[in-house]
Design a protein that fits this description.
Pnp Oxidase, Chain A, mainly beta, seven-stranded antiparallel beta sheet, three-stranded antiparallel beta sheet, single chain, binds flavin mononucleotide, globular
Amino acid sequence: MFYEPRLRNHGLSHDPLKALVAPRPIGWISTMAANGSINLAPYSFFNLVGDRPPIAMFSSDGQKDSLRNAEETGEFVCNIVTTEFTAAMNASSAPFPHGVNEFEKAGLAMEPSCLVKPPRVKGIAAALECKVTSIQPLAGADGNLGPYIMVLGEAVGVYVDEKILKDGRVDAAHLPLLARLGYMDYSSVERVFSLERPTVG
Ligand SMILES: Cc1cc2nc3c(=O)[nH]c(=O)nc-3n(C[C@H](O)[C@H](O)[C@H](O)COP(=O)(O)O)c2cc1C
């Protein structure tokens, strides 16, 4: 089959696009508003898009609290989600009003970040402390804007729980990272293998 997403001519009950570009990591984004209120919400339109300097992004379907706070205070923290936090991550995605602290709603404790004001989730395996570098409304090929607004930030600090390290490396085989598939599906990293890059000549 072939379809054009704009025309929604896939003939299926759901657009398969997000199930195809998968798994997508989940950035569990903590932010602080100008008034000091704290926010936490998951974003799977999330990734690290460069490493020199390290730039992370999340993309908001319209004006949500994480975007608003990142705009107001110029900082966000990407908490890296492992399976033990699945239920709390999901709970924090409920559409609470602005100013409600999802840490409290999801039964989570806050731990201070090192270089930015938004706290990280206590007990998290890792967290990127980011300073906003640009906020980009996303236009299509016709130049027209859709609802999505991408927030990019430099990871000026990286918190790593030393328990996830083995022999100086992240122990990927024992770190059940949670990822988003399509529909209501999720996956966790369960099989890890290595591959050497090819050389030429
Ligand atoms: C796993 C997961 C991934 C999500 N990814 C996104 C996303 O990439 N962009 C988005 O706008 N909403 C996403 N959502 C929905 C937001 O988490 C939800 O709208 C939340 O209430 C936003 O909170 P905020 O207004 O406090 O930022 C996701 C929800 C879940 C459970």
